[in-house]
# Entry
Amino acid sequence: MIPAQPLPTELTTERLHLRRYRPHDSAMYDRMLKENAEHLYEFLPFFLVNARGEEDIRQWFDRQDAEWEARSLFIFGAWEKATGVYVGESYLANPDWDVPRIEVGYFLVKACTGKGYAAEAANAAIRFAFEQLKVLRVDLQCAADNAASRQVAERCGFTPEGRFRQHHRKKDGSLVDVLWYGLLRSEWSNLQQNTTRP
# Structure
C-alpha cells in the first residue's frame, strides 16, 4: 500500500543532518557536481553529468518534489551536524508497493569518503523506509567492483542474495557484474534490538 500520510522531510543521525533539497541548495549542488565530476561520473545519471548550471539543478529539485509526492523517489541531502558541510545524499527509489519494498542508494563527495558517512546516511534512509514507508524489505545493488559500496551493504546488515553476471554497462562501455542485497524488516528489527542492548 502506498503511504498516504505526511512524511518527515528531515532525518538526523549521530553526525549527520539529512533533509530534502530546497531551491536555495541549487548553487551548492551545482558547485558540488563540478568539483566532483570525475569522482561521481560513473554513478550519476547523464542529465546530472551534463547539467549546465543552477537552472538545471532547480528543475531536478522540482522533479524530486513531484516524485516525492507520487511516492516514487525519496532523496535526502546529507550535511555534517558539526560543520554544516555537505557530504552527499541517500535515497530510496524503485518502490514496489504491492510487496512493499524499495531500494536504497547513496553517494558521497570525494572529500568525505572514508569516514563511514555512506553507511550512516544509508541507515537513516533505511530507518525511514521501515518506520515511515512501512516496507517489508529494502534492496541494495552495486557493481561487483565497487568495494566501498559492498562494505556499506555489509555494515548496514544486508544479506547478499545474488550476482548478476555482466548485468551493467559502465559509461566507458565495459560490462560489470551487479551484486544484489536484501534486508528484511525482521532482520532490521533484530539489528536495532542488538544495538540498543546495554
User: Anything to note?
Assistant: The chain has a mean pLDDT of 95. The radius of gyration is 17 Å. The helical segments are 26-35, 37-40, 46-49, 54-69, 117-131, 147-155, 185-196. Strands lie at 10-12, 16-19, 73-80, 86-96, 101-108, 137-143, 159-169, 175-184.
